[in-house]
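Practice record 12: protein with nicotinamide-adenine-dinucleotide.
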Amino acid sequence: PAEDIQRARELVAGAGRLVAMTGAGVSTDSGIPDFRGPNGVWTRNPGAEKLSNIRDYVASKDVREQSWQARVGHPGWHAKPNRAHEALVELERDGRLSAIITQNIDGLHQKAGSDPERVIELHGTMFETVCLSCAERRDMREALDRVRAGESDPPCLACGGILKSATISFGQALDTEVLDRAKTEAMSCDVLLAAGTSLTVHPAAGLVGLAASAGASVIVCNASETPYDSAASAVLRGPLGDVLPALTRS
Ligand code: NAD
């Protein structure tokens, strides 16, 4: 509704400390499908959910081989940031955005020009690998080269353990330092702008409730309903490529 846009613009314009919380929906215009939207990976192929579960990844070589094939062909390697990412860069240049808490692993906020120090990657990054045994991290390009050269499930070069992209799968705990930073930001902002996330994955989604109970106003920008719509001061359903630039333009 028009009054929600107006209210949201006022909140953004008046914010002393604004935090954005983003999800897969900010990257759909960059050609990376979300999970639960109308063209989402899981909406189209419910079986794909298995690839995101740590238990199956550890237990099954077959799942790991499929994951590596999917990783090689991931649209994120060549994706470019879109107007939604750019709008958040503008907000930061205005000096009001203190952090972007993102559930995305695609690095597009940083590519758009957001200060990497302010981007909190709750679910990790697809640009690195991590060994599930010795925790060594390496550049993802190395593993992808090995997969392309014929290793269908490349083991860790340091210890022979199971190698995985440095992203959080279901059943895997978030990095506590990263989560603590996100909590601190959520509790100290006066406006929390949630964009392109269904707010159904925890603990990420819980940060919105945390911000609200600490007194922040919440703005939800998402095409479909979220569990936090009723707690929000404004709810905007339009496409993010229009909504975010409209919100942030003063
Ligand atoms: P989700 O798929 O659950 O929700 C995305 C939401 O964005 C949907 O509700 C959809 O309606 C909305 N949306 C999509 N395009 C939009 C647009 N252009 N304008 C407005 N709304 C739009 O995603 P989530 O909440 O981020 O949770 C999914 C999990 O999947 C996260 O944990 C994340 O780590 C991971 N993931 C990341 C990426 C990425 O890095 N780009 C992509 C897919 C999934």
